[in-house]
């Protein structure tokens, strides 16, 4: 069994590129430890201590050859190595061949631990660097919850069929595929596309800025539509069906004369005159007076 190495997220990519991995890697598994959780970590905030504790349990209680996972990510953002990258993990029945297993220390079911930003950033970094190192994409990430206890691929978290809720029902917004697509996947992709991507704080600030801009755009669009409606109403010609208060006073006498002399003949709906008609009536009236 290998000795453990602890590193921060910034050093992980360089360390990973130096490793000689002969096994064919096809997916990255994401888990939460459930136990130890944040209460345990806060009592003993030591990455190697908890990695040894998990190895002892996996070997002496579960009877496995080594600790289950290749990496554990701690609440302080440290990444600690575990099982050799050249050995399949003991992470998900039916999905261990070709996999690298990442355990994120804590209980991320609803009502459990609130993941620190440092741990979130390290989780994104570790997943993205592994995908880059082995020529994989964000669709090659899998959650334990997307598999049955017997090792059947479900493709999503399905209560009653999934073997576990792991990595937690509140993990980056949830353990469903939709939650992954909406929350964690864009962060991993952003890291892979850029120079390290955004930190969680930057990501949340960017989301808030985008939401504010969207709201501003929506308000401007609504105002533009209202103004367009007002302009359209102004452009609509005024129709005068009767000689009443709606018709300009200056036109009353001329229109009355035109009606009395049969020049204007109304219908059952009224006279149907617009402003041009009123001016024409005024001209005709003056010519005949």
Descriptive report:
The structure is a single chain. The model has no long low-confidence stretch (mean pLDDT 91). The radius of gyration is 36 Å and the shape is rod-shaped. It contains eight helices and six strands, in the order βαβααβββαβαααα. The protein has two domains: 6-198, Peptidoglycan recognition protein-like (Lysozyme-like, 3-Layer(aba) Sandwich); 249-288, no CATH class. With 289 residues, the chain is of the alpha/beta class. A hairpin with a 5-residue loop joins strand 3 (71-73) and strand 4. Strands 1-4-3-5-2-6 form a six-stranded mixed β-sheet, sandwiched between helices.
Low-confidence stretches: none
CATH-derived architecture of the largest domain: 3-Layer(aba) Sandwich
The CATH superfamily of the largest domain bears the name: Peptidoglycan recognition protein-like
- Give the strand content: 5-15%
GO molecular function, one term: N-acetylmuramoyl-L-alanine amidase activity
Organism: Candidatus Ornithomonoglobus merdipullorum
Domain N-acetylmuramoyl-L-alanine amidase: 23-168
InterPro entries: Amidase/PGRP_sf, Amidase_domain, PGRP
